[in-house]
Structure formats: structure tokens, C-alpha cells
Design a protein that fits this description.
The complex is a heterodimer of chains A (90) and B (286). Chain A contains 3 helices and no strands. Chain A is mainly α and 90 residues long. With 286 residues, chain B is mainly α. Chain B has one domain. Helix content of chain B is 68%, strand content 3%. In chain B, helix 4 crosses helix 5, helix 5 runs antiparallel to helix 9 and helix 6 packs antiparallel against helix 8. Classes of the chains: A mainly alpha (90), B mainly alpha (286).
Chain lengths: 90, 286
């Protein structure tokens, strides 16, 4: 365990560490964006379908739609925040 | 009107004077807080920084907006025009979409002002964040440098707002239901052996609300600003002015996306979720 720690601290400033952190940041944000993209697509797709079936419900559905949009979109930012924290702190 | 707005936006974004003043550009420096007026009381740091100034301006503007839209004395039919209908529209969104969605009828009189204020205030400070103001704290040949910055892109601001909702939620829950019934409502109907697993998660969930409420607003505004500033900053990072032809329109598109969609939605969602949380504490499901 202590050997591992020493090894980890000795390479923490090498270019490879920087590269790894950058890859981690990009992967974190990218995967977060992937999930949120699918989610937001689902929300707007369902909204289009529901309005096509029952156009009179549009007003009520719009509020729910934006609520869902904002809740889903926030997932990217949790990923972004976690990745930035990992990038800065590790 | 729309065309002029677009041209003005593009022109405003084409002059990132803060970068000209320094000679180089780093988007992260835009979010640093310098103590303009130092106020230290004991261990507390109450200094006036950029975010505090933006908050103060936002507060004054919110009050003025409320006075101008709602408290205007109608003297003739001419006044009952744009201003009143605009005020009524805002009121209706706050009443129908935010308060009545989350709050039970018996608590709406008490908590409608809070959620409506929250919505208007967050909207105003978000909107203020996309208007270039000479508040970057830097000067270029003696002229204050103009820049965009939102107070909500600092986590201290959003966390304070989320803490307000957090405390109001539990105070109201205890006040309406009594401490025993309120904390009992956190324990869901589940088989006995599972309770040891579910109850800690439920308690953790109450605190996760605090994090999700504050981080959602904070990260949205921060990411929006970083996106715009980074695209403009590419000119300075790659050191070619030709890039402006490509980069400035892209930044303008992101700017319009943020202004038209994101700031309104974030203000709405913060208020709506506050209403839902407070409402669900006043009337627990079981």
C-alpha cells in the first residue's frame, strides 16, 4: 500500500498524469452529455407524440416538459462538476 | 427589432475587452472574486466582491420591477396596456405554474410570496449576467472594462438560496405536522428488514436536494458563461483574428440560447422545486 502511494505521488506531475486527467475530464463530461442527450430527446419526442394525439393538452404539458427538460439537463452539469473536481483535486 | 438585437449581441461579444487589457485570455480568471471593499467581522468575511455588487444591483432591479409592474396606479385606459398585461403574465406564471403545482391550498397564501420572489429574483440576476456591464474590476487605459458575469455562477449564492428553501421546508413540516409525525413521514411503507437500508437513503435524499438544487443553477450559469467565453477566447488562445469570423457567430448562438431558454427555465425550476419541496413537507403523503 505504501509503495503504491509513493509511486502515485512520484508520477503526479508527469505529462502522462496530465493527459490522464484531461481524458478523465473529457470522458466524464462526454458520457454525461450522452445520457442527457438521450433523455432530452425522449422528453421532446414524447411531447410531440402527446400533442399530436391530444392537441388540447398542449398548455398543461408544456410546463411539465420544461420541468423534465431542466431536470434532465442538469445531469450533464453534475458530470461536469465531478469531472472538474477530479481534474483539479486529484 | 429582432435583427437589431442580434446585431447588438454580436457587436457586444466581438469586443472581449478584458482580454485586450491583459494581452492574454484565460476563461477561468473571469470568475475570480477580488475584495473591492474589505469587511472582516471576526472570522466572517463580508467583503464586497463582484458577486455581491451584482446581487445588490439585482435586488434593486427586482424591487423596481415589482413596483413598476404591480404597484402602478392606473389613471387612464392607456396605462392598462403593455405594462399591466406583462405584470399579469408574470403573476400568472408564478401563481398557476409554480405555486399551485407544488403548494397545498391551505399554505398558498403564506408561501406564494416566497416562491414568486425566488423566481423573479433568480430571473433578474441570471438576466443581469448576460448584459455586459463595466464591473470586471479591470481598467484599460483608465476606462473600466466591460464584461459579463452572473452572480448565480458562484456556488455561494445558489447554496444560500437552496439553504433558505431547505430550512423553510423542515420548519414548515414541523410546524404543520408536529415533529413526531413529520419525521415519521420520512419512513416509507416497506418490509421491516428493508427499512434499515431505505431510511438512511431517505435522510440522505433530503440533503441531496440541497446539493441538486444549488448545483443545478450554479453549474448551468457557469457552463453557459464558460462556453461563451471559451469560444471568444479561442481568438486569443490561437492568436488569429481571422478566427473571429467563425467564432463570434457561434458564441452569439450560445448567448441567445442561454438568454432565451436557460435563464427563464432555471428561475422557473428553482421556484417550482422549492414550492414542491415545501408543499410535500406540509402535506406528507402518509
Amino acid at each position: 500500500m505504501s509503495n503504491l502511494l509513493i509511486a502515485a505521488t512520484s508520477v503526479s506531475n508527469s505529462p502522462i498524469t496530465h493527459a490522464g486527467k484531461a481524458i478523465g475530464l473529457a470522458l466524464g463530461v462526454g458520457l454525461g452529455a450522452l445520457g442527457a442527450g438521450i433523455g432530452i430527446g425522449n422528453i421532446f419526442g414524447s411531447m410531440i407524440q402527446s400533442v399530436a394525439r391530444q392537441p388540447e393538452l398542449r398548455g398543461e404539458l408544456t410546463g411539465i416538459q420544461w420541468l423534465g427538460f431542466a431536470l434532465t439537463e442538469a445531469v450533464v452539469f453534475y458530470g461536469l462538476l465531478g469531472s472538474i473536481l477530479a481534474y483539479v483535486l486529484v | 427589432m429582432k435583427r437589431w438585437l442580434l446585431i447588438a449581441t454580436t457587436a457586444a461579444l466581438a469586443f472581449p475587452t478584458a482580454a485586450f487589457a491583459r494581452g492574454k485570455f484565460d476563461p477561468t480568471t473571469e470568475f475570480e472574486q477580488h475584495e473591492w471593499i474589505s469587511i472582516h467581522i471576526g472570522g466572517l468575511n463580508l467583503s464586497i466582491t463582484k458577486a455581491v455588487v451584482y446581487l445588490m444591483i439585482g435586488t434593486v432591479l427586482t424591487i423596481l420591477m415589482g413596483l413598476g409592474l404591480m404597484r402602478w396606479k392606473v389613471t387612464s385606459d392607456k396605462d392598462v396596456g403593455r405594462r399591466q398585461s406583462f405584470g399579469e403574465q408574470i403573476y400568472e406564471i408564478a401563481q398557476v405554474q409554480v405555486a399551485e403545482q407544488g403548494l397545498p391550498t391551505k399554505a398558498i397564501g403564506r408561501w406564494f410570496p416566497y416562491v414568486a420572489t425566488l423566481m423573479l429574483f433568480i430571473f433578474v440576476i441570471n438576466f443581469l449576467g448576460f448584459i455586459p456591464l463595466p464591473l470586471t474590476g479591470e481598467t484599460w487605459h483608465g476606462v473600466p472594462v466591460w464584461g459579463i458575469y452572473a452572480a448565480t455562477s458562484s456556488i455561494s449564492v445558489t447554496l444560500a438560496l437552496a439553504l433558505l428553501t431547505f430550512f423553510f421546508t423542515h420548519i414548515e413540516g414541523i410546524r404543520w405536522n408536529g415533529p413526531v409525525r413529520y419525521f415519521k413521514s420520512w419512513i416509507p411503507d416497506a418490509p421491516k428488514p428493508l427499512l434499515g437500508l431505505i431510511v438512511p437513503l431517505e435522510i440522505l435524499g433530503q440533503f441531496m436536494r440541497l446539493i441538486s438544487l444549488s448545483v443545478r443553477l450554479f453549474a448551468n450559469m457557469l457552463a453557459g458563461h464558460i462556453l461563451i467565453l471559451t469560444f471568444i477566447g479561442l481568438i486569443f488562445i490561437l492568436q488569429s483574428l481571422v478566427l473571429a469570423v467563425f467564432v463570434v457567430p457561434v458564441a452569439a448562438v450560445f448567448y441567445l440560447f442561454e438568454v432565451v431558454i436557460v435563464i427563464g427555465i432555471q428561475a422557473f425550476i428553482f421556484a417550482a422545486l422549492s414550492a414542491i419541496y415545501i408543499g410535500s413537507a406540509i402535506e406528507p403523503e402518509h
